[in-house]
Amino acid sequence: MSIAVVNGKLCDEQKNIHVRNLLIQGGKITGVGYIPDEDEAALTLCDVSQSMMLPNTFDFLPLPEPSTIASYTQFVQSKGMINMAYIPNASTDCLDSPDVLKGMIDALGPLSTHVKFIASASKGNEANDLSELSLLVDAGASAIYFDRIIENEGLFKQALTYVDMIGVPIIFGPMTTMQRQGAHLNEGPTSFEIGIRGEAEQDEFSTIQYVLNLVQSHVTVPVHFHCVSSIRAIEAICQFKQASKGLISLGVSPFHLVFSDDVLRSYNAKLKFNPPLRSNVTMTLLNEALADGRVDHLTSLHYPQVGDSQALSFFDHPFEVQTLDYFFQVVSHCLVSQGVPLDGYERLLSCPLSLSFFSPVTLGLHSTATFTVLKAVSDQPSSMVLFDDLNVELSGGLKAIVNQGDLVVS
Amino acid sequence: MATYFKHCIGLRFLTKESIMSILHEAKKIKSGESVVHLGNQSVVHVFFEPSTRTRLSFEMATQRCHACPMMLDVNTSSLTKGESLVDMMRNIESLGAKAVIVRHSNGGVPYFISQQLKIPVINAGDGYHEHPSQGLLDIFTLQERLGDLSGKHILILGDIMHSRVAKSNIWGLLALGAKVSVSGPRNLVPDCVTSWGVDLRFDLDDCLKEVDAVNVLRIQFERQHGIALPSIREYRDTFGLTKDRQSLLSDHAVILHPGPINRGVELDSDVADGDKNVILDQVSNGVFVRMALLSMVMEPLR
User: What local confidence, expressed as pLDDT, does residue A34 receive?
Assistant: First the structure.
C-alpha cells in the first residue's frame, strides 16, 4: 500500500522551506514531488497543505518502567514524538546502575537510535553517588540530569565540576523546591485566592539565577533548562547566553502558553503542572518570549501514568502529571498564533543543537517515513476539549503523524 | 430570620446576609438570649494540621451547643494504612456524624470534602485558602468595638500572601461594606488584591493615622519556605506595630491579632498588652461565633 502526503512544507539541509509531495511505500519515502497516477485505489492520499512536516520531533520524557521501555517508546512515537531523551523518574528507582541502562538499550533494539538516556546527578546527595555517573555515561547515558539543586553547595559544585570533566551536557529539570521545602503558594491571582500550593515564580528565578552563577564558574559543557515557566528566569538565561556565548538553551511547555492558573479554580487534578501554572500576565510574557526567539525548545511535560494516578484528588495528585495527547495540538496553536516563522517549527520541536543528541534528518528519497505534520496557518479557531473537560479554542492543529510509513493520525 | 447554609468553606462563598446572620446569632448566644441545643449529635473534628486555640475553641463550642465533639487523631487513623481521604470521610459520615470540622494544610480540602459528603463541613483553616471562623470572630470583635462596619477602615498588616486569616477577613469585611487596606513586605502583599477592592498601603505610618482597626498577622518565619523575608529586626523596624506606631492610631482604633503573638516582632509587648488590644476578646468571642456557625449548619438538620 502506498501513501501520498501532498502539499506539505519541509525544511531542507540549508533550512530553506519547500512545498513537497512525498510518496511512501514500505516504510520509506520512494518519491519526492512525484505522485503516480496509476493504481489510485491502492493509494492513500493525505493532503497536508499549509502544514509543516517535522521529522525530528524531540522531547524529554521521564523514564517509564524499564520492562516497558520498548512498548512505551513505540507509544510515544505513535503520538508524534520521534526522538526522546529519557530523564530520571522521581517515582521509580531505575536508571541508577549501568547494568539497568545497558538492559534498556538492548531491549529497545533498533528503536535505540531514537532514544537517549540521561542519568541523575541529584538522586543521591552523597559524594559516592557522583562516582557512578561516569559508569552510567560509559554504559550509554548521554547527559546528566539535575532535577533540583543539591542543597550542599560544596557538593553541588563538585557535581557540576565532575560532570564537566566527564564532558557530557547537563540538563536542569524544573528545579522545583516544592519537595524539599514543602511547597508554598503558587503564583497567580486564582492560586492566591483559592490557596493552591505550588512554586512561586520568584523561587524559580532565584534557583535559576543561583544555578547560572555556578554554571558560569564550573561548567563548560552544554547546559539545557528543561522547562522554565517564569519570564525573569528566561531573561536571566538569555542574558547569560549572550554574555557567556555559552552553549545554553531553555525549554518551555506550551501548556504554560495557553493556560494560566485560572484553570486550577476547579481543582482539576489533570491540570496540575510542574512547574505550576502561572498568572495571565506571565502567560502573555512567555508567549512574547516564544515569538521573539528566546525559547529554544517546546517540551510536553508528559509523565508516564502509573496505576490510577489520574483518579486521585487534586491534593493527592502529584505535580508533573501530563498527557502527550494534546501536546501537538497546543504547540501548533502557539506557533500559529504567535506567528513563529516556519523554520522555527523545526527548531522548537527538535533537540536543541547544542546537545548534539541526534543528527538532524531531512526528508528525502529513501529516508524513513517518520514525521509529524503540524498546521502552520491559522484558519477558523476550533473549539477543542482538552484534558477531558476543558473547552479551549485553538488555532492550527495536528494534521498527521506518519510513523515508519504508517499513517497513524490524519 | 436566620439565613441557614449547608457548609462553611470560606467567607468568599457567604452572602452578606449569611455573615450578618452568623454574627447576630453569635451576639444572641453571647448575651444568653439564645441557647443552642443540638441534641447530642456527633460532630467530628478532623485536624490534619496542628492547632491549639482553634481546636479547643471548636471543641468548647461543640460542647456548649450540647453536641458531642469527637476528635479524630489522623496520625493513628486509617489514613496511615493507605485509606483515601474520601473513603475516611465517608466512613465518618456513615458512623453517624452530623457534621465535620476540617483543618488541612492544603487549600481546598474542606471544599473537596463538602462535595463528597451529605453532612455539613466547616473549614477550620485550609492551607493558604481561608480560615472563615477566624475571619468571623475578628469581624464580630470589631463590630463589638466599632459598631456597624460599613465605611470603617480596617488595615490588615503582615504576610498577606500566605495568610488564610487575611483572606477571610478581606472577604468578610468587604461584604459588610468596610474599607480594607493591606500592608506588609512588598513580596508578601500580592497586587491582585486590588482587583478585589482592597487598597495596597506601603506608607504604614500614614495609613495608621486613617484606620479604625489594625489586624496584625503573625509572621510565620517557620513557614516561609525559602521566600526572602527581612530579618526579624528589620521586619520589626519596618512593619512591626511598636509603641510609637500605636500612638499614630486614633483614640477609638483597636488592634487585633489572630495569635500566637511573636512579641517583639509584629507586636511589641507594650502594644500586645495595651489598652487598644482586643486579642483576648477575639479568643473568647471565637467560641460564640463557632457555636453560631454550628447551630446554623446543623439546626436545619434537626
Answer: 76
- For the cut 70, the answer to whether the pLDDT of residue A271 exceeds it is yes
pLDDT given for residue B9 in this prediction: 96
How many degrees, rounded to 5, is the angle at CA B171 between CA B170 and CA B173? 65
pLDDT higher than 80, residue A7: yes
**Binding-face residues of A in 158-177 toward B, CB within 8 A:** 177
Yes or no, beta carbons of B227 and A197 under 8 Å apart: no
**Residues 185 through 224 of chain A touching chain B, CB cutoff 8 Å:** 185, 188-189, 192-197, 200, 202-203, 206
8-state DSSP, B245: H
The Cα B198–Cα B201 span in angstroms is 10
- Domains for chain A: give ranges and CATH numbers: 2-51+365-375+396-409 (2.30.40.10), 53-355 (3.20.20.140)
Residues of chain B with confidence (pLDDT) below 50: none
Give the Cβ contact number of residue B214 at 10 Å. 28
Nearest to A313 among B112, B164, B192 (CB): B112
Domains of chain B: 11-131+284-301 (3.40.50.1370), 133-279 (3.40.50.1370)
Find, among B115, B14, B160, the residue nearest to A192 by Cα: B160
| Contact map slice: A 257-296 vs B, CB within 8 A | 267, 279
Strands (E), chain B: 42-47, 68-72, 99-104, 121-126, 153-157, 179-183, 199-200, 213-216, 254-256
What is the 3-state composition of chain A as percent helix, strand, coil, each rounded to the nearest 5?
35, 25, 40
Rounded distance, CA A192 to CA B201, Å? 19
Q: How far apart are CA B277 and CA A189, in angstroms?
A: 32
User: pLDDT tens digit string along A300-329?
Assistant: 988 887 666 667 788 888 887 778 889 999
